[in-house]
Amino acid sequence: MKRLKLFLFITLLVTFGFAKTPQKHLTPKEAFNVSAIESDGVIKSKIILGKGIHLYRESLKYTIIKPKEIKLKFDAPKAHELDGDMVYIDEVNITLPLAEISSKIEGNRYTLLIEFQGCSDNGLCYNPMEKEFVFELPSGSSTGFWDKITNLTSASNTGVVVDVLKAESSFFVVFLFFILGLLLALTPCIFPMIPILSSILVAQSDGKRQSAIQGFLTSLVYVLSMAITYTLVGVLSGLLGADIQAIMQNPWVLTAFALMFLALAFSLFGYYQIQLPTKWQSRINTASDSAKGKGIVGTMVMGFLSAFIIGPCVAPPLAGAVIFISQTGDALLGGLALFMMSMGMGFPLLLIGLGAGRFMPKAGGWMDRVSQIFGVIMLGLSIFMLSKVVSVEITILLWALLFMGISLFMGVFSSDSKRKLVQLTGLVSLVYGISLLVGFLSGTTSMLHPFEKFTSSSTQNHSIHQTEEHQGYSLARLKKEIASSSLPVVVDFSKKSCSACRELEEFTFTNQEVKEELKRFTFITVDVTNQTKEEREILKKYNLFGTPNIIFFDTNNNYLKNKSITGFVDAKRFREHLKSIQ
After folding, report:
1. How far apart are the first and last CA of the chain?
2. Are 306 and 193 in contact (CB under 8 A)?
3. Span 368-405, pLDDT tens digits
């Protein structure tokens, strides 16, 4: 009996004394610690998850709910698979660019809503949760009309342009792009057009003073031809999914362009005149006596060529409009936006044509000298076109010959004491031409560093496109190289005929501070000069149009779409951009 009582006592002790106590579940606040702060032009959001808590990737959403509802896109970090679902553990970090938010809202104050849902590992699932944060844009970051213009002008990411085209009204978009064109006209992009148009006006004057109307009509034909060509390139590229600009930069096409500039140069030197047959001239003159009929076709051709000269300068707006057209099929709005932007860029040229007759001096011997100067400029444009086809060494040789020729043209060895300033300029041109010739003979690859082969740092400034290892990329090869990196990855898309790509190599990538920042990245260069099927597949995968394009991946190999750069970017901006990528 005593044994039975002892057994019962032990049983009760085990049951009640050592029984497992009920498990305590974390409260929602303990399970999900949510924060969001504004810093360095971005909103940094962090969700710290409690022990044994996971958050479902598909449930994570970021939305501006005030002053109006805007769903935000973001680069989601790498998730883990759990029972067929992709989840986050430990913590979730999301970065939202302020520029994207400020371009879409009006006023300085806005409310950010973060939505998510998660569960604990023991099976308890929490209700969908929401967390609101109120922010104010920094001083000077209001999102009125002019601020949207500023954001578009400085945008290097095509996504900003696409978002504007999708979010704003059609009338606002058209007007916005016209103003954008006016602002872009103040950049160096428009400078090559000024001597081209001026040479056309001088060539058509026939030694006589043009009227303001004649000059304006000539400029209008030039600007309209440029704008229509530019628009057609964008619309066709968007609808057909082809890089028409790349097609137009085919070696045969570029060589034809170079020969046309060469022919124009010799025409301006006075060796012959380029004009239509007499019968054609008569018919055109009958249709428009005031437009100098014999020059209309030539002016249209020059406008057509100019559209490809300015292309690299306005790559982000062009690429953004093309992507918008390809995604929505709205060729009318995308094309109209491009046309109005081109007309905005050409507006200063219309003013030049309008003032040509009023401010141009009376005819005289000076016009022959001006024609010769424009002839030299045309030779330079011809070499510029050929540089996209021939090797760097041949390009340097051609520039060397041109600069030495310019010195002779300026009478560097003349004994005329009245032309000392001109002779001094000619002497500078001669010295630089000889320097380039020495550089060509020594095998230099840089016009800015003709003596690099004779300096100790010569190996540091070479172009990154010197070997064929950057060609022949496929999507599988690119993904493999990205996956093998434990660092963030920079992928630079380039091609031989891209002048903006060369500028990146010469001025941006060689900057010492940029080099230091790039040490924590894996840098991959993809040369798409050959436009193979595999290379086009890569461009399509990442929704890229033309070159240069630079895309980024974080340490978890996630593609950072909002960090992509289209077109040239200077060293300072690129360095700051790299600092924002972890």
Report:
1. 74
2. yes
3. 676 677 778 778 878 887 887 788 888 889 999 999 98
